[in-house]
Design goal:
By secondary structure, the chain is of the alpha/beta class. The chain contains six helices and seven strands; from the N terminus they run αβαβαβββαβαβα. It is globular.
């Protein structure tokens, strides 16, 4: 592996909306070349990608066609035990926050992610994982200063 690749972090974005996947991928890559971002349209496609890629972070939508994102956290960890999982939802409620965190997710953010604060927070999470690759983060550990519109 080259030194350049060792300094990059693989991120997987999961959302059943292709436009949202593109938006998240572009937002994460804005201003940096440190991330390799792949996308999946559902959790089953994500699990297939995890078999051949060493992702460090998953940003997953909550409500997808026939899927609920937080129900797959344990399956993601079966594939990659140290993966960090961040749930996303446009309908952020305390109940959804609890469901994500109880499922073992590391954090939960409210969409829309085009809000500058959430994009910066997503990039901050990626930078924390990149800086500390061997540290497994529990709920809340990845987030230092949450935006007012985010639950965690």
């Amino acid at each position: 592996m080259t030194e350049d690749l060792e300094r990059k972090i693989r991120i997987l974005v999961i959302d059943d909306n292709p436009a949202e996947n593109r938006l998240l991928k572009e937002a994460l890559n804005e201003g940096t070349v440190r991330y390799i971002v792949d996308t999946a349209l559902n959790p089953n496609d994500a699990l297939i990608l995890m078999k051949t890629n060493s992702y460090r972070i998953v940003f997953s939508d909550t409500d997808m066609n026939n899927y609920t994102g937080y129900e797959y956290v344990s399956k993601y960890r079966e594939e990659i035990p140290t993966i960090r999982v961040v749930g996303l939802s446009t309908n952020a409620t305390e109940q959804k926050t609890s469901e994500w965190l109880e499922s073992g997710a590391n954090a939960f953010l409210e969409k829309p992610v085009e809000l500058d604060a959430n994009i910066r927070l997503m990039q901050y999470i990626a930078e924390q994982v990149l800086a500390n690759p061997d540290t497994f983060y529990g709920p809340f550990d990845l987030i230092e200063n949450k935006p007012k519109n985010s639950f965690y």
